[in-house]
């Protein structure tokens, strides 16, 4: 049975965000700004339904979805694109596949103790973020 990811997580660290954003064709000014942000995550996980909020001082991003059901995700706030997104479990990892203009786009969330790990991929770039559970 997959873990329940419900909780509030504070930003701890990130690696390779600038290269990840460059692969998404984000302009240099916005890349520099985003690299300074320290986002928090709030996850509400009820059965096969999830809401993942990424919270920053600049803008929040909310994903509201049912596991295993493809939906059109509007990534306008991120990079101006839309894609067909499916989120499902692979073992203990929550895996998102985002089909659209960019190859190999998606992410993985998993827990190690009370830390939430996130690997975001696009093309050949991987951005790694770690969050600490606070409640």
Describe the overall structure.
The protein has a single domain, classed as Calycin beta-barrel core domain (Lipocalin, Beta Barrel). The chain has 135 residues and is mainly beta. A hairpin with a 2-residue loop joins strand 2 and strand 3. The chain has a ten-stranded antiparallel β-sheet. The longest helix is centred in the first third of the chain and has 9 residues.
Jot down its keywords.
135 residues, mainly beta, Lipocalin, 2 helices, globular, Calycin, lipid binding
Largest sheet: 10 strands, antiparallel
Point out poorly predicted stretches. Answer: none
Biggest sheet strand order reads: 4-3-2-1-10-9-8-7-6-5
Under CATH at level 1, the class stands as Mainly Beta
Count the beta strands.
10
CATH topology: Lipocalin
**Structural class of the secondary structure composition?**
mainly beta
Please identify the oligomeric state. single chain
How much helical structure, as a percent, in the residues? 10-25%
Let me know the CATH homologous superfamily. Answer: Calycin beta-barrel core domain
Beta content:
over 45%
Topology:
Blueprint: E1 7-15, H1 17-23, H2 28-36, E2 40-46, E3 49-55, E4 61-66, E5 71-75, E6 81-90, E7 93-99, E8 106-112, E9 115-122, E10 125-133
Antiparallel strand pairs: 1-2, 1-10, 2-3, 3-4, 5-6, 6-7, 7-8, 8-9, 9-10
């Amino acid at each position: 049975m997959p873990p329940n990811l419900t909780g509030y997580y504070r930003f701890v660290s990130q690696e390779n965000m600038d290269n990840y954003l460059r692969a998404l064709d984000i302009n240099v000014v916005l890349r520099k700004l985003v690299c300074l942000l320290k986002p928090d995550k709030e996850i509400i996980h009820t059965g096969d339904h999830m809401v993942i909020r990424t919270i920053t001082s600049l803008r929040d991003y909310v994903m509201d979805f049912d596991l295993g059901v493809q939906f059109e995700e509007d990534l306008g706030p991120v990079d101006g694109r839309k894609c067909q997104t499916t989120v499902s479990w692979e073992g203990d990892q929550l895996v998102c596949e985002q089909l659209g203009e960019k190859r190999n786009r998606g992410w993985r969330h998993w827990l190690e103790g009370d830390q939430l790990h996130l690997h975001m991929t696009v093309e050949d770039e991987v951005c790694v973020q770690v969050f600490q559970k606070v409640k």
